[in-house]
Structures are given as structure tokens and as C-alpha cells.
Amino acid sequence: MHTDLVAALDIGGTKIAGALVDREGRILARAQRPTPAREDGDTVMAAVGAVIGDLAASPLWERAGAVGIGSAGPVDASAGTVSPVNVPGWRDYPLVAQVRDAAGGLPVALIGDGVAITAAEHWQGAARGHDNALCMVVSTGVGGGLVLGGRLHPGPTGNAGHIGHISVDLDGDPCPCGARGCVERIASGPNIARRALENGWRPGPDGDTSAAAVAAAARAGDPVAVASFERAARALAAGIAATATLVEIDIAVIGGGVGKAGEVLFTPLRKALTEFATLSFVRRLAVVPARTGTDAGLVGAAAAALMGRTDAAVAGV
């Protein structure tokens, strides 16, 4: 049987999603389990194994030639291990070896979730056709990944492009990572909401204090909500400009829940970028919303598996 498909796993703190994906990025079969994030490592792996088992029950499984994993991080692709912040039972957990065993010995490629979404956006989404791109996930955290010279650039451990932990405020709040003034500490959804609440914004009758509720208030003209999104936009702009100055990207793609806020985020972000991206070679930098949606992690994990098998860019990955 021709192995023209790959299996993909998208592992996060809430759910473990799996799919069988073809070379055009189409999802042909799916499986999913909740992540038992508060349980021990073997219990979490059992949920991963159950997803793989569901995929293996498909008649398409015999056409799968490799497995790609996009995991919450940090990951260490060189060691095949993961230590997701939101899955405390996994610390230096040998995920690649465990998945290889569960998948009957298929080759396994591991990348971080930010890099996975970057792979998806370059293969199928807003960064398609761009040789040098930064793709970002702005949601509960802020992650990202890079495409340089037309190829995904995960770095030796699979974490390159992790823009959320660039410091953009030397005297800023301490970040859980140990540094100060990180992009994530200012621009993630929970931190946008925290800043708005600290400055006097109050939720509506439903009591919703999410970043989406702050975005709705900002669209309605609430000045505190607007200011919180403007602060986030400036932090993102500073991080994007720093990245562009270092490696000459020509597009920044923003996905994740906060990325869905629309012009409440993108209008002040593009304005702030003109203040930070001032050198001639970064002035033409485009900032656009992501296109691949909720399947981005799976599509990107599939891209990693395809690249691992061919050792070459696949379909523009």
C-alpha cells in the first residue's frame, strides 16, 4: 500500500486532536480526547494513545507513513521530549518514543505548537508564497514560529520564533518565564483582560471578563478597553519589529483568540508598527490575520511529518 498520508497530533492543555492528512493538507479522518492535564504523565499519554488508536482503526491508517506532533511547549525536538507548561505531569517526557511505539514504529516528527501553526500558515494560509515570515498565536499565551528562506525554521529544539518571550519593557511586570516585560505578559488574552480590569473596566451583566469581552467593549468605544488593546498592540508591534530587524521577514501573521479581535487589535498594531519598524528594510512589513483556523495545529503537524519524510519543502512548506 502506498504511504501517501501522514498522521498528525495537536496536543494542548485542553484537548488532544488527531487526524490523517494527505499531501494537499486535507484532513481525511479525525479523533479527539480531552487532555487530562492535571493527571500524571502516563495518564496523559494514555489519552494520546487513545487518539492514535482511534486513527489506527480507520481503514486509511495503513496509508500513513509518518506521524507529526505539534505540542504545547517547551518542546525539545533534538531529545524528543516535551515539558508543556499547562501539562505538569509531562516534564522532559519522552513523547516521540512513546508515540512511535503507539503508532507501530512509524517515524515521528516533533515541533512546538507555535511552529506548527507557522507551518500551516505557510503551507495553506496567509503566509503562503512568502519566503520570510513570522507567524504568531496570540491567545492564552503568545507563541510563534519563523519561515526563513522559504523553509520552516524550528531551530535545534523546535522553539525558534517564540516571540512571546521577547522583552519589550525593561522595567515591566515579572513574567512567569522569569524575565520582565515579555510580549506575552502584555499581549496575551488574560493579560489584556487583567490590565483592563485593573484600570477600571467592568464586565457587562453576564460577568464575562475574557479578552473577547474586552474586545467587544473596545468596539463599543469603552476607553479603558481600547487602551488595553492599544497597549497589547504596542507590545506586539515592538516584538514583530525586533524580529523583522533581525531576520528580514516581510509578513507577520497573527492567529489565536486575540487575533480574532479584528480591527480593535490590527488598527493600533499597524499604527504602532510604523513607530517601531523604522529602518528601510522593515518598513514594508505586512501584518495580516491567520487563515487556517482551528485545524492549524493539525495541518502544521502534518507538514512537519511530510518534511521529515522527504527532507525537503513539501508543497511550499
Automatic annotation (TrEMBL):
Family the UniProt entry places it in: Belongs to the ROK (NagC/XylR) family.
InterPro entries linked: ATPase_NBD (IPR043129), ROK (IPR000600), ROK_cs (IPR049874)
Species of the source: Streptomyces variabilis
Pfam families: ROK (PF00480)
Listed name of the protein: ROK family transcriptional regulator
